[in-house]
From TrEMBL:
Residues 21-76 form the HTH cro/C1-type domain. This is Transcriptional regulator. It comes from Streptomyces daqingensis. SMART domains: HTH_XRE. It comes from the Bacteria. Pfam families: DUF5753, HTH_31.
């Protein structure tokens, strides 16, 4: 006797609604999970977990579902809502503003900023920070982080300015191969029409932002907000005066950092020092 499908609760969240709609359209098309797996190139087991809201859909799946079922963007719309629900509540408001930003400026003292992380680097970071977490939980976090990067492919994308401490280049996650690929990505982004990456060398000494990560976002109407992040908490700053203070600290840090060209050279030097 076949196992009874898990009951769906589409009223609970966009993630549950995504799974319910996916099952409904699949059954309406008289398609099994195996058959859908062949069409969308996602494993049967993963599709089953997505239907029951136990797993987050990968970023490539919504468009493939819309194409398979002829649903005219419904799954892509649901995905945009569902992808926000995996993040902690204090982060959701920041994500909404990030999606509206025309300029994102970020200082990161310890790790590569999430918007430009490779999938393997993100996975290694999550494993280190949550060593007891189940593999499925880690993969959901990785999927959520990768989904944030979609805004960099928007038309037009926001301008992105990153200042990373030299420690980011030296502190490895996932081993030499993972770090080499991650550093290569940073070097590629050092100076493009929409991205700038600058490295703050150790010899620049202390500064006002040394205590944590800072993200500054300029919205389409010119308004500015700031988001500060520590190990497990984040604080959204919208007071004009406080944001101006953080902007001033960031601008001073940028003046002390290496140029994009010299930053790319230092990044490639760090790559060459990695063991083969």
């Amino acid at each position: 006797m076949a196992a009874r499908p898990r009951e769906l609760t589409p009223d609970r969240s966009a993630r549950h609604l995504f799974g319910a709609k996916m099952r409904a359209h699949r059954e309406r098309a008289d398609t099994s999970l195996e058959g859908l797996s062949d069409i969308v190139n996602v494993s049967r087991s993963h599709l089953a977990r997505i239907e029951t809201a136990e797993a987050m859909p990968p970023p490539s799946l919504p468009a493939r579902l819309d194409a398979a079922f002829g649903t005219d963007g419904i799954f892509e719309e649901l995905y945009r809502l569902a992808s926000r629900e995996i993040h902690p509540d204090q982060f959701r408001r920041q994500m909404e503003l990030e999606a509206r930003a025309r300029l994102i400026e970020e200082y990161s003292p310890q790790i590569v900023p999430g918007l430009v992380q490779t999938e393997d680097y993100a996975r290694a970071q999550f494993v280190v920070s949550s060593p007891k977490a189940a593999t499925d939980a880690i993969e959901d976090l990785v999927t959520a982080r990768m989904s944030r990067q979609a805004l960099l492919k928007a038309d037009p994308p926001p301008d992105l300015s990153l200042i990373i401490d030299e420690a980011v280049l030296r502190r490895g996650f996932g081993g030499p191969a993972v770090m080499r690929a991650q550093l290569a990505r940073l070097a590629e982004l050092a100076l493009t029409p929409t991205t700038v990456v600058q490295v703050l060398p150790f010899d620049r000494g202390g500064h006002a932002l040394v205590g944590g990560t800072l993200r500054l976002m300029t919205l389409e109407d010119g308004a500015r907000v700031a988001y500060e992040e520590s190990i497990s908490t984040g604080t959204l700053l919208e007071d004009i005066g406080i944001v101006a203070e953080r902007q001033r600290a960031y601008d001073l840090l940028r003046a002390c950092a290496l140029s994009p060209g010299d930053s790319a050279a230092l990044i490639r030097s760090a790559m060459e020092e990695l063991p083969t």
